[in-house]
Amino acid sequence: MNISAPKPYLPFITAGFPSPAQDFTDLKISLDKTLIRNPAATFMAYADGDSMIRMGIHHGDLLIVDRSLETRDGDVVVAVLDGEFLIKQFSYLEGKPALIPHNSKYPIVYVSSDSDFRVWGVVVHSIRTFR
Description:
Blueprint (H helix, E strand, L loop, with lengths): L30 H5 L6 E5 L15 E5 L9 E6 L2 E10 L2 E5 L8 E2 L6 E11 L4
């Protein structure tokens, strides 16, 4: 597997044992430049609920959503379905558009042709706060 570091170069840090913090005291990064490709088309929102926990998106996580990206099968999206905002994985199941939760407590939502449905943007990052 070939893994390339995001630009600007950021070090990979092993989570298995402590690393001397002094090695990284000169590290300066801009999260805006690292996480946002198209600022004019990007917004942030907090995740509400637990329907995407198996995808790693938890209640309260900060989502970075890019409205300029074309939606692809398998993308996690912020969508509006009949006036309700949802965060789900967009996919085609048996040729029909579907919004898939990643928590077995919630059903798959099939998007019918008479639904008022729009994808507002593609979730490109999820940031979790631990403290």
